[in-house]
Specification:
The structure holds 2 protein chains of 2 kinds. Chain A is built from 13 helices and no strands. Chain A is mainly alpha-helical. Chain B is mainly α. Classes of the chains: A mainly alpha, B mainly alpha.
Chain lengths: ~270, ~290
């Protein structure tokens, strides 16, 4: 009995050590963001440490970080709503209907997921220029309103629901939109939650697309602003860390609240490959 | 059998499908075709005009020392991270799959770094790796040698430092995928093995590993595709330096195409990378499949 208990203590000790390795960099980030002073070498002097929100206050007074925060929220929310709407409609048609070209459309959903980002960055940059949407909110939103992963997720989920209810509603003269709104969407709530959390996180953290599709300071999203402000003389590390904490906060809160949905989404997303 | 009423394509369905069809054409198919087309031209954004140059871009790329350096760095990065990430991920997954108090808590903690914005992680590690920073202090404590100027400023350590961060960050993500695969292995198999007196290592080799094979295959391919595309870390931490020692293929594409606006040249580099990724994935699939069969 005692050896079993010892073994279990040993395992917990190992688990805690690994947890520390995973968390210490974030503890450093948080302590740095809340520090009154920060050494030039990037270490925190614990002897003179004083907790302060001053870095956050300065941050919100500066347009170069305040605006990106607003941009990030707007873009991530709009893209998430767009995905909930468009992926459901598209997934519904792909799950229920039979039509020529359906197989091709399904294949494109999977294939597009495997295309490396860098193949499209240069043409995408040119494309947004030609469309006249380069460096606008449209460039940050339009290409991402409907995602292959979202379509795949919704199609899989809707396929597993028996179509009987839709059929009887149709016999009673319900329109397609009514059927989707009243029958399909309520049944899809678990999948929609996974899709919402997943889409928000991906777009909130997204760097490369907002980075190449915008050029002016006022169009930057938070990750882009963080990457570009780093190293500039007029921004110090504690402020950069404070902005990073703000960038990590929504993902952390979402993760704490919906860790199950997030892991489900990731596994579903990975397994389709 | 005639299709039932649900299966018939109706008028509004075209509207339902159109967002994806438009996105697909505008933002995926067109860019892929355009990229191929551009790579055979000398298109430069600043001049605006272009002419066909055949394979000149490709020939020039292989004479470009920065490009060959970027290729070798990308391969070093992939080969130097993938085995570690995969092994750590399997170990952590097996560890969490056993009996352990607060299992879900630990699982979330291990997974957490891969949830965070890569930019933020790169910023944290830039400070940690700096001259006089915590990693140097740690090296001093255990007596390991370290570059005085900071890990990211030495040609000897910059790439390795980025790689170490990447392993730290990605392990939790792949752990989660392995865990999902482990949980699908029926427990009876282990019970039977224990009754037969099989050791933990033997159980792992005979039951766990064979069941993990499909997931392992998938993760090796997924991880190498992702590794070949490393960009954000390089952009935030080193800008490809010092002396191109961390220049990678995507960073090269970005610099040529979108900084110097040598669109044709950058597109050619992008297509070579695309071909490399496709080839490596295909080889991996073939190799592992042959071994399993």
């Amino acid at each position: 009995m005692t050896t079993v208990a010892l073994k279990s203590y040993g395992k917990v000790a190992v688990a805690i050590v690994i947890a520390l390795i995973m968390l210490l960099p974030f503890v450093y980030l948080l302590l740095g963001a809340l520090a009154s002073t920060f050494s030039l070498t990037g270490t925190i002097d614990l002897a003179s440490y004083r907790l302060t929100f001053a870095n956050f206050a300065t941050l919100f007074a500066r347009a170069e970080l305040y605006l990106p925060l607003a941009n990030s929220v707007a873009v991530a929310v709009i893209v998430t709503l767009g995905n909930l709407f468009f992926c459901t409609l598209c997934g519904y048609v792909l799950a229920r209907r039979k039509f020529p070209g359906k197989g091709f459309l399904m294949v494109t959903v999977i294939l597009v997921l495997m295309v490396p980002v860098h193949v499209v960055i240069i043409p995408l940059y040119l494309m947004t220029n030609w469309l006249g949407i380069f460096d606008t909110y449209l460039a940050l939103i339009l290409p991402f309103l409907v995602s292959p992963l979202g379509i795949f997720l919704m199609r899989q989920y809707i396929s597993a629901i028996p179509p009987d209810m839709e059929d009887s509603a149709r016999l009673e003269g319900a329109s397609e939109l009514t059927i989707i709104w009243r029958i399909v969407i309520p049944l899809c709530k678990p999948a929609l939650a996974v899709l919402a959390v997943q889409t928000f996180m991906v777009n909130w953290n997204s760097f490369i697309y907002p980075f190449i599709l915008t050029s002016s300071e006022s169009m930057r999203t938070l990750p882009v602003a963080l990457a570009l402000l780093q190293g500039y003389q007029n921004i110090d590390v504690p402020q950069l860390f404070a902005a990073s904490v703000i960038s990590v906060l929504p993902t952390t809160l979402l993760f704490a609240a919906y860790s199950k949905k997030i892991t489900e989404g990731i596994i579903a997303g990975a397994l389709k490959g | 059998m005639p299709p039932n009423s649900t299966q018939r394509l109706r008028f509004p369905d075209y509207f339902f499908l159109s967002p994806w069809v438009i996105t697909l054409i505008l933002f995926w198919l067109f860019p892929i075709v355009a990229s191929l087309f551009l790579s055979f031209t000398d298109y430069r954004l600043l001049s605006g005009s272009y002419s066909f140059v055949g394979f000149d871009n490709f020939a020039q790329l292989f004479r470009d020392a920065a490009f060959t350096k970027a290729i070798s760095n990308t391969f070093i990065f992939t080969i130097g991270t993938l085995p570690f990430t995969t092994c750590f991920a399997i170990l952590l997954a097996t560890f969490l799959n056993g009996r352990l108090p607060f299992k879900t808590f630990f699982q979330s903690v291990y997974f957490f770094p891969s949830m965070v914005s890569l930019v933020v992680v790169a910023l944290i590690f830039t400070s940690l790796y700096a001259r006089g920073g915590y990693i140097q202090l740690l090296c001093g404590l255990v007596g390991a040698p370290y570059p005085q100027e900071g890990f990211l400023f030495s040609t000897a350590t910059a790439l390795a430092a980025v790689m170490a961060m990447d392993i730290w960050m990605a392990t939790g993500y792949y752990m989660l995928l392995f865990l999902a695969a482990l949980q699908s292995i029926p427990n009876e198999l282990y019970e039977a093995a224990r009754l037969d007196g099989a050791s933990a290592w033997r159980q792992f080799r005979v039951i766990t590993l064979p069941h993990l094979k499909p997931m392992l295959l998938f993760i090796v391919v997924l991880n190498s595709i992702k590794s070949f595309q490393i960009f954000v870390e390089v952009f935030v931490m080193t800008k490809g330096g010092p002396l191109n020692s961390t220049n990678t293929m995507v960073y090269f594409v970005y610099e040529e195409g979108l900084q110097k606006f040598n669109i044709g040249y950058g597109a050619a580099a992008a297509n070579i990378l695309f071909a490399v990724i496709a080839l490596v994935s295909w080889l991996e699939l073939k190799l592992i499949k042959d071994k399993t069969a």
